[in-house]
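Assess this:
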Amino acid sequence: MCLTERESFSERLQQALKNAHYSPDSPTRLAREFNIRFEGRPITVHAARKWIVGEAIPTQEKLRTLANWLGVPAEWLRFGGSEIGAAGSEGGQAPAARFESADVKLVADLQRLDDQHRQIAREFIRMLVRLNHQR
């Protein structure tokens, strides 16, 4: 059976969601997690469902956001090609960092601070990282 372009995209999206420990069966969660990360107009649950079931492919801008969030190359997500390993990396490269909703909110909160308080927060985080590495 020859899969259509949309169905092939759907399979890759579902695999990327699984590899990132998200359910490929929840368009509501996909829409919520995507909208937290996307700076443009939010998507609807209906649009997320269409991506999951292979009825539609997102625009390039949305595809890049999905790929960054899920830690896969945007080209692979859109067109396929060489397989992505179970850890979500390709060609020996480390996968992009994945952030949970709380992390994304924290970064958004940090960006709302004035420059002085933002610098204090950065120094505090660097101090915590150094302490963590000393253990």
Notes: Residues 1-81 form a domain with the 434 Repressor (Amino-terminal Domain) fold (CATH 1.10.260.40). Residues 85-96 have pLDDT under 50 and may be disordered. Helices lie at 5-19, 27-37, 45-53, 60-70, 74-79, 101-112, 115-134.
